[in-house]
Structures are given as C-alpha cells and as structure tokens.
UniProtKB/TrEMBL annotation, chain A:
Gene3D superfamilies: Cobalamin-binding domain. CDD domains: Glm_B12_BD (cd02072). GO terms for biological process: anaerobic L-glutamate catabolic process; L-glutamate catabolic process via L-citramalate. NCBIfam families: MthylAspMutase, PRK02261.1. Residues 7-140 form the B12-binding domain. SUPFAM superfamilies: Cobalamin (vitamin B12)-binding domain. The gene is glmS. Keywords: Cobalamin, Cobalt, Isomerase, Metal-binding. This is Glutamate mutase sigma subunit. It catalyses: (2S,3S)-3-methyl-L-aspartate = L-glutamate. HAMAP family: Me_Asp_mutase_S. Catalyzes the carbon skeleton rearrangement of L-glutamate to L-threo-3-methylaspartate ((2S,3S)-3-methylaspartate).
Automatic annotation (TrEMBL), chain B:
Heterotetramer composed of 2 epsilon subunits (GlmE) and 2 sigma subunits (GlmS). GlmE exists as a homodimer and GlmS as a monomer. Adenosylcob(III)alamin binds at residues 64, 119, 176, 289, 318, 322. This is Glutamate mutase epsilon subunit. It catalyses: (2S,3S)-3-methyl-L-aspartate = L-glutamate. L-glutamate binds at residues 62, 96, 145-146, 167, 173, 177. Its cofactor is adenosylcob(III)alamin. Catalyzes the carbon skeleton rearrangement of L-glutamate to L-threo-3-methylaspartate ((2S,3S)-3-methylaspartate). It comes from the Archaea.
Length: 151, 479
C-alpha cells in the first residue's frame, strides 16, 4: 500500500440548475477536516466548470451532488467532458438522484453506467464518502485521524 | 449608484413599458383600468385589510398548479375543506427564471395531457384576464408566492390581475434561491416591484408586501433573518408600500421562536416608518421533514402551539407530506386543520414560559448590531449598506448558495435546542454576544462529550427529520 503524505484535492459542486447548498456545505467541512484540499464550486455548476476546476487543481476526485431529481439528465455526457479535458479523477455522485421513490439499486446502476465510480443515496454520512475515497486513493489514516473522523 | 431612493414617476413609466414588452400578455396591463378593477372587489378579497383586522393568526397554505381551472379547484378545496383564511398562488420555476416560452410549453402540455407538468401557476402566461378569473372564483384574498429574482413582469400582471399581496424581496428571493444574481441587480428590480405596489397604494389599493423570512430554511439564526426583514421592509416603505408583513421561519425551540416573533414585530414597528402597517408571518418548519405523516403532524403541531403563544398575524402551514415534495390537496388541507386545532385549543390559555424575555432581549441586541453595521457600511444608506455589508461578510446568511453572500457563517443548536452561531466568520457582532453563544455551545459540547465542530451542524441539519430537535451523537447514549 502506498502511503500518501501530501494533501489531496477534491472538487465538489452541485450540478445543473440545482440550488440545494446545505449538503455540499457539510461535505466541504467534512472533507477539509479529514485533511483534503477542497475546491467547492457551489451550486448550479455546469459539467464544463467541474472539468475546468479538476484540471486547474489537479484533482484526485470529482464529487457531484444533486438533490432536485434531474441528475440523470444533468450528467449525460459528463464523463466525456471530463475525458476531453484530460481529467483522470475518481468520480462520485450522491443525493436524491431520481424523482420519486425509485429503487436505489436501479439508480446506482444508472449512474455507474454513466461512468461514476461510486453512487451514494441521500442518507449517506460524509464519513462514508471519506472512507471510500481514502480506500480508492489508498490513503492510510493515523489512529488520531480516525478518532477525529468517527467521533 | 443605486440608493434607497424612490423611483421617479417617469422612470417608473419607462421601466413599466419596457418590461411589459417581454411577453405578449404584458400589453393587457392598463394601470387606471386595474385601479377600477381593484375598487370593484368586495372587502373579503382586500388582502391588507383582512390580514390587519384579524384578531387571531390567519392560516395560509402553499399551492400552485399550471391550469387555471385546476388552480380554482385547488384553492376552493383549501378554502372549503382546509378552512384557509388566506390563499396562495405559487408560481412555477420557469416563470421564476423569466422563461415564459418554456412556461408556455409546459402550460400547453398540461392542457393536453391533464398532468401537472409545471410546479406552479404560470401567472404571466395566464395574463391579466386569467388572473382575474381566479380572483373572482375564490371568496378570499390571494397572495402571489414565488422565488423570482426579477419579478417585475410578474408583479405588473398579477397586480393588474387583482392580486393584492406579493411575496419576496431583493435579498430574500436572491440569496437563498440562486447563485449568480448580484444583489445590486435584484435590489434595482425589486425597487420597481415595490414602487409599482406603492403606485397602487397611492390610488387607494394597498398592495401587501411580504419579504420571505425563512431565507435558506436551514437553522437561520433569528437576528440574521430579522435584520434582513427590516432592510427589505425599509426598501418597500421607501417606494411607497404601506402594508408590510415581515416573516420568520420556525426553528423548533419554542422559547426562541416566540422570542423571535416578538422581536420581529417590535423592531418592525420601531425601524419602519409610522405610516407603514407592520404585520408578521410565521412559517412552520422549513427544513427537512420526518418521512412519515404521523411524525410530520407532530412538527406541524409544534408550529401551531408556537403560533398560539406568539400570535403572529399569519401562519404559513406545512403538510404532512412535506417529505415527498408537493402534497396532495387532501394532505395540504390536513396541515391547515391540524394547525387550526392546536391554535384554537391553545390560544385562549395563558401560557407563561420562563426565558422568553431574556431570549428576546438577546435577539434584539444582535439585530441592532447587524442594523448598525449595515448603516455604517452604507454611510446611512440602507441599499449601499446592504450591498457592502454582504460583500465584506459583516452581513451573511448560513447555507447561502449565492455568490453575493459569503455563506461562511455556520449555525448549531445549543444544549436547549436554540440556534446559535458556531462559526462567525466576519459577521459583525459585539464580543459579549459572541461569548454568550460560545458558552451555550460549549455547554452542549460538554453534555455530549465531544468538541464543538461542524459535526454538530451536520447532525442538527438532519435532526428533526430523524425525530429529534438537537443532533446528538448516536453513540452518546441517553444525553
């Protein structure tokens, strides 16, 4: 296992026309507290803005949030845009990804097919996403860090 | 440079003509004819009079569907079965973005399919005559409720269409709703809306204006909400509005909510000019709701109880289906009836709760700090002061998506569930007040055996939908 000691950058934002800001505000705080450099693009962020920020900051991960039910439409072609910009980052998406009470496993499959590495529902704690990213980036945590995160 | 000054008559006419050209229905607006129309309406439809003369809190739901006949049916149901005193017409999202073409498509789809393809009533597309059909069909006052940064055409059409109350304002319909509209831009546009309401008022048709108090709807500290209400009330008064309803969203701690509503009325009367009649509106909990209807009714009932003690002039009710989004008309009416039952049972009781006066005093002191900093930033001008104070971070709103606010202030509940400020950032506040908040949050941290951190904020955001008021740590046992 490779031990990364330098800080890692994640790009965070709400995609499309969505203005729900509470979730990413909490994610920004949580990822910062966990030692990541967080570039928070805020709400109403376009695919191109995600790609530009990922390039500019050499991001290890692009975290997309959506709560208004139009995520599938907003994410069409997103991974093509990232690829064209030369972004090689882990991509996660989370929130209320479909309108109504859909089966989440089906939603997960839809977004994995669109190219996302991980798909989270709206009940996910920030710690779960942080743990997943640490695993994907093969970052080990010290005991003290672990204690902070799980407290 | 834009200032808190009344738009001159020729400028009002010029903007009015310009914006009415944005969509064909704008041509049907005729100011003098509209005054005559309002004069023809019965007393039961005069919003400001009905609201200001009421002796106990009036109830109002939220509701809007695309088709006119469906909207009539929905409002008749909420008036008849829900016993709503005041009715709403909630406007769709395309209209809020000034996308009248898309709203037209949605309206035509709705007419063909019978489905609700828009999330509200596209009043601009229905035009003056469509609005009047609605006003004539319902025997109660109706307010326009929306979330539109540039609401000039919507105001021109709905005022001429017979509506006498209009929600929103340049801060409250900007900061929580959109990322890229500058404050200077929305203030300029809302000066027109307020001036138009003022022009009707001068002709004897008092249009009621209601700044949107809950802002981002998520743990907004009362003093921040109240300061913004006072600012928007002042903007409206300058343009000639004489009936202003200041808003506040329930935070769930009864003492703090009652104290905040008391402070809102008191400071409103103090800060706004004498010729303005100031009323208040209490919004039942605007944050995340429990996912089942029984628990949601509990949240709604606590709002009713709070309203019975604080006696605001109006209560905006929630429905037990809030968790899922837009409710059925039956659920919407049931939220009204639940609220009414609790208010009517509680309002004749004398309920004295310790601590309300102290909390109100704290809220008033905080609000005065914010008002002082706004006036200092603007060298006495409240428009410039607002723009500059948001720019410097001296004025801020938690969880604000807008680029016009820092959104750096973070709230958290104290050990008693009152909303305090955990992260002040650059918010202008006296040190002794900051110390009170710090001490209250530190007591909670002690109770929970953890440090003050953003985790508390995150836990608090989910707490009510999870069944509690305060986001206690899961593994802390029975604290």
């Amino acid at each position: 296992m490779v031990l990364h000691t330098m800080s890692q950058t994640v790009v965070l934002g709400v995609i499309g026309s969505d203005a729900h800001v509470v979730g990413i505000t909490i994610l920004e705080q949580a990822f910062s507290a966990a030692g990541f450099d967080v570039i928070n693009l805020g709400v109403q962020t376009s695919q191109e803005e995600f790609a530009e920020a990922a390039v500019a900051h050499d991001a290890e991960a692009v975290l997309v949030s959506s709560l208004y039910g139009h995520a599938e439409q907003d994410c069409q072609g997103f991974h093509g845009v990232l690829e064209d910009a030369g972004v090689d980052a882990h991509t996660y998406i989370g929130g209320n990804l479909a309108v109504g009470q859909d089966d989440f496993e089906q939603t997960r499959a839809t977004f994995e097919e669109l190219g996302f590495d991980r798909v989270f529902d709206s009940e996910t704690d920030p710690e779960e996403a942080i743990a997943a990213l640490r695993q994907d980036l093969q970052i080990t945590t010290t005991e003290t860090e672990r204690a902070t995160i799980s407290s | 440079m834009i200032r808190d000054e009344r738009i001159p008559a020729d400028e009002l006419r010029r903007i009015d003509e310009e914006i009415r050209a944005d969509w064909p229905t704008g041509a049907d607006v005729d100011f003098d004819e509209a005054i005559a129309y309002h004069e023809s309406l019965p007393a039961s439809k005069r919003f400001a009079d009905v609201l200001e003369e009421a002796t106990k809190p009036l109830l109002q739901p939220r509701a809007g569907v695309p088709r006119l006949d469906d909207q009539v049916e929905l409002l008749e149901y909420l008036h008849g079965e829900g016993k709503a005193d005041l009715l709403p017409t909630t406007i769709d999202s395309y209209t809020r973005d000034n996308e009248y073409e898309k709203a037209q498509e949605g309206l035509e789809n709705a007419r063909e399919s019978g489905e609700d393809t828009l999330n509200g009533f596209p009043a601009v597309n229905h035009g003056v005559s469509g609005c009047r059909e609605l006003i004539e069909a319902i025997d109660a006052p109706i307010e326009v409720r929306h979330g539109t940064p540039d609401a000039r055409l919507l105001a021109a059409i709905t005022f001429a269409g017979g509506f006498q109350s209009f929600e929103g304002g340049p801060i409250s319909y900007n900061i929580p709703y959109t990322k890229r509209h500058g404050l200077e831009e929305t203030i300029e546009k809302w000066q027109f809306v307020d001036r138009l309401a003022g022009a009707y008022t001068e002709r004897g048709v008092r249009i009621n204006r209601e700044p949107f108090g809950p802002l981002t709807g998520t743990l907004v500290p009362p003093s921040i909400a109240i300061a913004i209400m006072l600012v928007e009330g002042q903007f409206a008064a300058t343009q000639g509005v004489r009936s202003v309803t200041l808003g506040y969203g329930q935070v769930g701690n009864v003492v703090q909510d009652v104290a905040a509503l008391n402070a809102l009325q008191k400071l409103g009367d103090e800060f706004l000019p004498d010729e303005v009649v100031v009323t208040t509106v209490f919004h039942e909990w605007m944050g995340g709701f429990p996912p089942d209807e029984a628990r949601a009714n509990g949240v709604i009932s606590l709002g009713g109880m709070t309203a019975a003690i604080a006696r605001p002039d109006k209560v905006i009710t929630k429905s037990p289906q809030e968790f899922q989004g837009v409710p059925t008309k039956e659920a919407n009416a049931s939220g009204l009836r639940t609220t009414r039952q609790v208010i009517d049972m509680a309002i004749e009781q004398e309920i004295d709760i310790d601590g309300i006066a102290e909390e109100q005093d704290l809220i008033e002191r905080e609000t005065r700090c914010l008002m002082d900093t706004i006036l200092e930033h603007g060298d006495g001008d409240v428009v410039q002061g607002t723009i500059k104070a948001f720019d410097s971070g001296a004025l801020d709103v938690p969880f604000a998506p807008s680029d016009s606010a820092r959104g750096a202030v973070l709230p958290a509940r104290d050990d008693d569930g009152r909303v305090r400020i955990f992260e002040w950032a650059d918010l202008a506040m006296d040190d002794d007040i900051k110390e009170i908040h710090r001490a209250r949050l530190s007591r909670r941290a002690d109770t929970e055996g953890r440090d003050q951190s953003f985790r508390m904020v995150a836990d608090d955001v989910d707490a009510i939908s999870d069944g509690k008021l305060i986001g206690r740590p899961q593994n802390a046992g029975d604290v």
